[in-house]
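Retro notes, structure queue

What went well: the backlog is down to a handful. What didn't: a couple of records were mislabeled last round, so from now on we paste the full input next to the output in the thread. Example, using Phenylacetate-CoA oxygenase subunit PaaC from Sphingomonas swuensis:
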Amino acid sequence: MPSLPPIRPEDEAVAERIRPAGAFDAPADVHDPVRAGYLLRLGDDSLILGQRLGEWCGHAPSVEVDLSLANLALDLIGQATLLLGAAGDADELAFKRDVLDYRNCLLVEQPNGDFARTMVRQLLFSTWQQMLYQRLEGSSDQAVREVAAKAVKEVTYHRELAADWVVRLGDGTEESARRTQDGLDWCWRFVPELFEVDEELQSAIACGIAVDPRHFEADYRSAIAAVLGEARLPVPADQRPILGGRRGHHSEHLGHLLAVMQYLPRTYPDAAW
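Corresponding output:
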């Protein structure tokens, strides 16, 4: 008589289904807090901006623009799904975390305002995101490399679309130029946070998972200045930087956004789709 019962095919099927949940079977770095923290930063940025852009659905200036913004939102939410999925359970992280647990930058959670402000926000963020993802294709982490290689193509289009609209609005009518300048004045104070390197990010840089954003800050500012020059808009004066999003210190706007985004799964936690 064997000392252990035989392993049946149905037992193997059950083991295969639960394998990702078993710590012994998981890759060694899945539970690395430095890696998870960096994935959350990237994923939260894309998730929150995707949700913001989704708010334009049905409200954009034209059908064509409505579809463009919806496609941008879908690109960003797709990125968030991959990044949060590499950090843990993507749905749990998106819908079950409280506002203080989010690690997105403050820029992406700002209200849409009018169309001009939305395009300015998109230009400022997508230019940074494209430059970041170009460099993250050399990350030491496989998941980060793979997402960056795919997403850089998407955010290149995001950047081009936003730049085109900023130029069109800035060099348009007196009213469109005023609104675009107002959008710049609102968003500019959040730009320094994109290049902030705190202790957590420094650890990710040291591991080769992340890249130091300060290395491309000069290129970023030159690129933004070039677009604004074409739009006949002055580069705003530097303001006192607003920081804290990476540490969970958010504006009041994020809580309202999450109340809408998380309502359904929190109200019906056992629902199956």
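Agreed that this is the format going forward. Reviewer comment attached to the example: Confidence is low (pLDDT under 50) at residues 17-30.
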